[in-house]
Each structure stands twice: as C-alpha cells, then as structure tokens.
Amino acid sequence: MKKIIVPVDFSQQSEYAMKVAVSLAKKHGFEILALHMLELNQAMITSTEDYHPEQTVFLIKMAEKRFDEFLKKPFLNEVKVTPIIKHYKVFSEVNEIAKEHEVGLVVMGSHGADGLTEIFIGSNAEKVVRTSDIPVIVVKGEMEDFNIKRFVFACDFSLENLTAFSQAKAFASMLSAELNLVYVNTPGDSFLSTSDCYERINKFLHEAKSAEEVTIYNDYTVEKGVLGFSEVNGADAIGIPTHGRRGLAHFFMGSIGEDIANHSKIPVITFKIND
C-alpha cells in the first residue's frame, strides 16, 4: 500500500479523516489522494444546451477554489497530497481510482454526534463502504495521532471471511498493533457449544494458515459482545467484514454490522468479503 484516498466535502469530518491520513502518511511514507465528490445531476452532465456546460464549469471552478483553500491547512505541509475531483458517480469509481493509483486504503469521517447514526443510512460513507474493494477506515472524531495499539477483529469465522481476515491481519501488522480476534457466542438459534466454537475456529485458522488465538466472548447480542470485548480489552479500533455492495447489513446477520459502526466510540475499519 503506497497511497490513501480521503473523500473530502470540506466539512469538519473531512478534516478529521485527513488528519488520520496524514498521521499514517508521516509514519509510513504514503501519498494522500484527496477526493472531492462534485454531485452534478445527470441532465447537467449530458445536456447539449449551452448554459449547462457553463454551469458545470462554474461549479468545477468553485470546487477547485474550495479544494485549494482546504489543502492549504498547516497540518498538510509535510505530506504529499494530490487533489482529484470527480462528478456524482464517484462512489462506483473509487475502485477505479484505487486501482489506477495503487491505493490500499480509504479514510472517511463520520457525521452526527452519536457516531454513525446518520452516515450509514443512504449516505456517502455507506456508498463508499459498499463499493470499495479496499479497507475503509471510518473516523469518529479528531485524532491528531492515529496510534492503534490494540486492534479487535470480529467475525463469525466462516470460511467466507478468510480474505477479510487476511486484510485485517496485514493492517494490524502495518500499524504494529496487537491483533485481538473475537468470536461472539449468543443465545438462541446461533448458539454453539464450546467444542463447536473451537471446531469452527480451528478449521478457519487452519485454512488461514494462522496461529492466532481467538477469544470466545459470550453476550446477548453480537453487537454488545463486539463492543463489550473491545472496551474490556482497551481496543483502539474495531475491524469488521462487509459484503461489499450488500453493505454492512449482511455482517453476521441482519443489521449487526451497521449497529456496531453506529455505536462504536472508536474507529471502525471495514474489510470486504469476496462475494
């Protein structure tokens, strides 16, 4: 991974995300691609009427001016930042930009005082998470120094999570973070005996060729278990797998992934499952 994409809408949340990217860039020598999503409607983009091109040019020039002002912030002085402006289809184009520029990570800021209460409901962040083939860090607030010492990765240890696990392990290694794996066992239809839990986990670790230890954590819901385990262990970030275009709603079952993202007080990193 040589480069990081940071979607920028000139908000305070964009600045939070940019500061995390800068922290990573300084420590690992990454280049930052600052990506502004200029939301032009389809009629304006495709129309041949004279005034539409003029409006488009005007909006692009205004965006370039705001972009230039945003990128003059003092904390950006010591890193390389390349500005990119795309029209409203940018969400599906993130992967194209990532492949073209050899990008390995997206960093986004969250909106709303209560974490991601709003951002994962038909929002830009949700669209990026659903379409991104590379890991996405969702930042909750200002973090001058993105220093992750303990990183929790939670999944159900079914074999479809192998790719996401591999990415999470590489991410923890890059940050020199302690990787804590957790399987949350809950009552009801999804309950597994201790022996069944270890059978599933051991099969997964064998396929992953990994000797990592996994904690079996009991709680009433997966969301409470992941958040509770992370709090007890002093985690600095939580990693969860996602099903790409099916989004966080298909993490484990129902809306668990969305709930974890909504209620977590620490950054959440999503890793795509190969569908």
Automatic annotation (TrEMBL):
InterPro entries named among the record's database cross-references: Rossmann-like_a/b/a_fold, Universal_stress_UspA, UspA
Lineage per the UniProt record: Bacteria, Pseudomonadati, Bacteroidota, Flavobacteriia, Flavobacteriales
Organism of derivation: Euzebyella marina
Family according to the record: Belongs to the universal stress protein A family.
Domain UspA: 1-140, 148-271
Coiled-coil blocks: none
Gene3D superfamilies named among the record's database cross-references: HUPs (3.40.50.620)
Pfam families hit by this protein: Usp
Protein name: Universal stress protein
Annotated CDD domains: USP-like (cd00293)
